[in-house]
Design brief:
This protein is of the alpha+beta class. The protein is built from 3 helices and 15 strands. The longest helix is centred in the middle third of the chain and has 14 residues. The structure holds 5-O-phosphono-beta-D-ribofuranose. 5-O-phosphono-beta-D-ribofuranose (RP5) binds next to strand 7, strand 12 and strand 14.
């Protein structure tokens, strides 16, 4: 599995917007030039830790708890604390965001100190009109669609991704998240769920890795951030996964096949993954 190498390293922006998306935390404003840790500035940002993380089985303890001895930069039991971005620095027991300052200390709403690993299934099919691929009038290229969800927390449209459970294989996370968020499989009647499960299981065997690395997610902080593996699963005929009715699962408000276009506004850095997929299929962008 090798990712497409078209991603230029960008300064993170979505995780620097003044208001943290949860709680009442606000970030210290910093300029693009002040983001890298090696640029010396006087820096004293606020700290935020969501009170909801306390005693959650999927979350790390508070960083200063004496019994909490995480092995940052290593596989720590079944918790993966290795970053796709290389070895990250530790300062005052806290891991430092490999992409630099965000204007907020602490781990915010994220369960892990350091990297939280996610997986993003980009499921695509062609837009078909009257039995043929629809061609875009400006670019003269066929229009690709991807299965998108509308997030409950911010109403933005996104890839139906999710966090990798400790010890879980990424390919299992990709399939599980898609089934839960786009097909509401946990609540679908048994017979229909069985049909969908079989179709998805086969379909998810053939994927192309699009991206592996840091996500510019609004929940990131100086000490906690999201990384993902984004994979494309393409239904060329629209006859496998593309033919089932989509149904938004618990984590989603809505789900639909969204036409891919460079003017879409998507959550976090998801648009850059979608651009790579459009180019991979020589589709309209
Ligand atoms: C994003 O957060 C990742 O790319 C992934 O799509 C998502 C995982 O978080 P939840 O959707 O589970 O909140 O940055």
């Amino acid at each position: 599995m090798t990712s497409l190498r078209i991603f230029a390293r960008m300064v993170h922006k979505k995780c620097r917007s003044p208001k943290y998306p949860f709680g009442d935390a606000t970030r210290l404003p910093i300029s693009d030039e002040e983001v890298p840790w090696n640029v010396k500035i006087s820096y004293n940002p606020p700290e935020y830790e969501s009170p909801g993380l306390k005693n959650k089985p999927w979350a790390d303890p508070y960083i200063d708890d004496t019994y909490f001895c995480p092995k940052f930069n290593f596989l720590d039991g079944n918790v993966d604390r290795v970053s796709f971005m290389g070895t990250y620095m530790i300062e005052n027991k806290r891991p430092l965001n490999p992409e630099g300052r965000t204007g907020l200390r602490g781990r915010g709403i994220l369960g892990r100190w350091g990297p939280s690993h996610a997986a993003d299934p980009i499921v695509t099919r062609w837009k078909i009109s009257e039995g043929v691929k629809e061609i875009h009038s400006v670019t003269n290229l066929p229009i690709l669609q991807f299965c998108a969800i509308q997030r409950h927390d911010c109403n933005e449209w996104a890839i139906p991704g999710g966090f990798v459970d400790p010890g879980e294989n990424v390919s299992e996370t990709l399939r599980r998240e898609f089934a839960e968020e786009a097909f509401k499989l946990l609540e679908t009647d048994k017979e229909e769920a069985e049909k969908i499960n079989i179709a998805i299981a086969d379909f998810f065997k053939e994927g192309k890795e699009i991206y592996k690395g840091y996500v510019d997610d609004p929940r990131n902080t100086d000490n906690a951030w999201i990384e993902t593996v984004a994979m494309n699963f393409h239904d060329e005929t629209g006859e496998t996964v593309g033919k089932f009715d989509l149904k938004a699962g618990d984590d989603a408000k809505n789900v639909l096949w969204l036409d891919i276009d460079k003017n879409l506004e998507l959550y976090a850095s998801h648009l850059s993954f979608i651009e790579a997929v459009a180019k991979l299929h020589n589709a309209h962008w």
